[in-house]
Design goal:
By secondary structure, the chain is of the alpha+beta class. Helix 4 runs antiparallel to helix 11 and helix 10 runs antiparallel to helix 11. The longest helix is centred in the middle third of the chain and has 67 residues. It is found in: Cell membrane. InterPro entries: MdtP/NodT-like, OMP_efflux. Keywords: Lipoprotein, Membrane, Palmitate, Transmembrane, Transmembrane beta strand.
Length: about 525
């Protein structure tokens, strides 16, 4: 329960002092209000960014004396030297629906901030009425004799109120809204980071599937030639029907991989279409024209672990959310303290419009109101405990986001380094099997070896070359993941002021019923 104790206001219709005395009283009241505002305080904890112990270097930099170079994250995808990828990313930034949603959240957060700021200022309302009536007698509202008791009454007035915010409830609300706006802006950056990474990853996957399809088609064609050669030898009586069956089966087995790869290629193209804000098959013509698997050459500079706190927008967003929840504790705590408001009104009444400005028709009053929470059944204290527990959750989420960011970088760096080593070995393996296949075929044509050796060599060569292509695509994917883990996203200017839905004819108009 709350009690409201208004201080005695100036009564309505009381004799008014001379203008200079009245203005002097108002000035003294203004000085008192200013003194009260200056004496106001804020309750609850003041936010400070928490500090965590972070390693000085990444695990693969241990023992190095040279200071690591800071990460080069601006437009990192352009270092892949693929114009098609660059165009797709720019298209996605402009058309992606998740990005548009994040922009709308920024507009919402900024509007919420303006709402909170508005609560710091006086609120003034105007009202006016005009009444025409009959009082059932021949006496008008002004006491004059009228025909049939008809009368006209005009009223106008202003009501004003101003909460002094002695303990900072409104100021904490403004603080929380400001942090919320910053969090929404970081959410947009995090969305862009994820978008750029997803576009690059799916593009790499599409190019990888295309390369593997082309390999399967070339290999199957070669194996069909081998099967035809074997069939010729069978007609000459040089080989058995088993060799022909094995050769035909190997070619069919290789061709059986193609439909699955084409399905995966189509899925990647469809994902790219949706990521760019278009129907799934829109980009099929552009992607199917072909292109190499992107091949990152330059090493990725990772900087130091502390860089992720500045570069990762999801980490920054978690920190701003923590700041917001801290401010909300103060707002909940302020509700347990007394509140003082200044209220006032001025009204005028007359039987004619011209009477509204006559001094004898004007009445006014003003004064402070004190509201003190006396008994609320523990609700206000519980609200503080709720806000405190929510702050703990955001603190732990912030700490977890830092650890996750560090883990992402470590994992991506290890994966990229190891995949490059793997690709080197696979290249050697493919080269060796290529030589083995060529020799096996030559010996088989001369009758110096069995067909089983040719069959085994061709099967091993296809497997090695396919694995090499998978590894090359994995290198590019790991390169994307590492730049994404370091915080590399879109850093260009973004227009967040234009809404996705632009309403028209929103002023007064006749409504139209929809069927």
């Amino acid at each position: 329960m709350s009690c409201s104790i208004p201080l005695p206001p100036v009564p309505r219709g009381a004799p008014r002092a001379a203008p200079r005395h009245r203005f002097g009283a108002i000035a003294r009241s203004g000085a008192l209000v200013l003194a009260v505002l200056l004496a106001g305080c804020s309750v609850g904890p003041d936010y400070a960014t928490p500090a965590f112990d972070l390693p000085a270097r990444w695990s693969d930099q241990t023992g190095r004396k040279k200071e690591p170079a800071p990460p080069q994250l601006a437009h990192w995808w352009e270092r892949l030297k693929d114009p098609t990828l660059n165009t797709l990313i720019a298209t996605a930034v402009d058309g992606n629906l998740d990005v548009a949603t994040a922009k709308a959240k920024i507009r919402e957060a900024r509007a919420t901030y303006r709402q909170q700021v508005g609560g710091l200022f006086p609120q003034v309302d105007f009202s006016g009425t005009a009444t025409r009536g009959q009082n059932g007698s021949r006496v008008g509202s002004g006491g004059d004799i009228t025909v049939g008791g008809l009368y006209t009454d005009y009223q106008a007035g202003f009501d004003a109120s101003w909460e002094l915010d002695l303990f900072g409830a409104n100021r904490r609300g403004v603080e929380a809204a400001a942090y919320g706006t910053q969090s929404a802006e970081d959410e947009l950056r995090a969305t862009l980071l994820t978008l750029v990474g997803d576009v690059a990853s799916n593009y790499v996957a599409a190019r990888g599937y295309q390369a593997r399809i082309a390999l399967a088609e070339r290999t199957a064609a070669s194996q069909r030639e081998t099967a035809a050669l074997t069939r010729t030898k069978l007609e000459a009586g040089a080989v058995s029907a088993v060799d022909v069956a094995n050769a035909t089966g190997l070619a069919a087995s290789t061709e059986a991989n193609i439909p699955g790869l084409k399905a995966q290629l189509a899925q990647s193209i469809h994902r790219l279409g949706v990521l760019t804000g278009q129907p799934p098959s829109t980009l099929a013509g552009r992607i199917l024209r072909g292109g190499p698997i992107p091949s990152p050459r330059a090493p990725v500079s990772k900087g130091v672990p502390a860089d992720v706190l500045r570069n990762r927008p999801d980490v920054r967003q978690a920190e701003r959310t923590l700041a917001q929840s801290t401010a909300l504790i103060g707002q909940a705590e302020a509700a347990r303290y007394p509140a003082v408001s200044l209220t006032g009104n001025i009204n005028t009444d007359g039987t004619k419009v011209g009477d509204l400005v006559r001094g004898s028709a004007i009445s006014w009053s003003y004064g402070p109101t004190l509201s003190v929470p006396v008994f609320t059944g523990g609700q206000l204290k519980a609200a503080v405990e709720v806000a405190d527990a929510q702050r703990d959750q955001t603190f732990l989420a912030y700490h977890a986001s830092i650890l996750t960011a560090l883990e992402d970088v470590e994992n991506a760096a290890v994966a990229l380094n190891q995949e490059r080593a793997k690709a080197g070995k696979l290249a050697q393996s493919a080269a060796a099997y290529r030589d083995a296949t060529r020799l096996a075929r030559a010996l088989y044509q001369n009758g110096s070896t069995s067909f089983l050796e040719v069959l085994d060599a061709e099967r091993s060569l296809y497997s090695a070359e396919d694995s090499l292509l998978v590894s090359q695509a994995a290198i590019a994917t790991d390169y994307v993941a590492l730049n994404k883990a370091l915080g590399g996203g879109w850093d260009g200017a973004m227009d967040v002021t234009t809404p996705a839905v632009v309403d028209t004819n929103t002023g007064p108009h006749f409504s139209q019923m929809q069927p």
